């Protein structure tokens, strides 16, 4: 069963929106996006919604390049959750199915293509504390705890 974050309001339709997000590691740093939002700035895992007919990994690689300007190598899926949210950018209520992958950041090929996005490198502890989405922060915490305790 996929965990759920938030509850949909009764009788309010939500658009199903599958997406993929990446935990991209380089040493003890995590690549995040700093995104301008209507009420301030948020730190998020790079990634986003998949285009119609797009599969998960190619969609994730596309989103990482658009939001950070970095290429990436996806290693494995580490979790998933459902999230009910209002997507202010699109004016739609969404049931997001968020697939989370572990990977490695590659070369930076340019600035982020999406307006209002900046690539930042955060120490793993800063990344966990700073992520706006608590489900992403919890998965990141579990992944990093396992990654650094297995050494």
TrEMBL record:
Matches recorded under InterPro entries: NUDIX_hydrolase-like_dom_sf, NUDIX_hydrolase_CS, NUDIX_hydrolase_dom
Which is an annotated GO molecular function term of this record?
Answer: hydrolase activity
**Which Gene3D superfamilies does the entry link to?**
Nucleoside Triphosphate Pyrophosphohydrolase (3.90.79.10)
Query: Which keywords annotate this record?
Result: Hydrolase
Which cofactors are reported in the record for this sequence? Mg(2+)
- Origin, by domain of life? Bacteria
Q: Which residues cross the membrane?
A: none
Q: What is this protein called?
A: RppH_1 protein
* Organism from which the protein derives: Jannaschia aquimarina
């Amino acid at each position: 069963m996929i965990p759920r974050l938030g509850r949909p309001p009764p009788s309010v339709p939500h658009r199903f929106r599958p997406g993929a997000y990446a935990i991209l590691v380089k040493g003890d740093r995590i690549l995040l996006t700093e995104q301008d939002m209507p009420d301030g700035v948020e730190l998020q895992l790079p990634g986003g919604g998949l285009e119609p007919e797009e599969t998960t990994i190619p969609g994730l690689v596309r989103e990482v390049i658009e939001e950070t300007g970095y290429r990436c190598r996806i290693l494995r899926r580490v979790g998933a959750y459902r999230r009910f949210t209002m997507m202010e950018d699109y004016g739609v209520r969404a049931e997001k199915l968020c697939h989370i992958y572990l990977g490695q950041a590659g070369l930076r090929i340019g600035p982020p293509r999406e307006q209002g996005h900046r690539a930042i490198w955060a120490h793993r502890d800063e990344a966990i504390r700073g992520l706006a989405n608590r489900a992403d922060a919890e998965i990141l915490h579990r992944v990093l705890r396992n990654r650094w305790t297995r050494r």
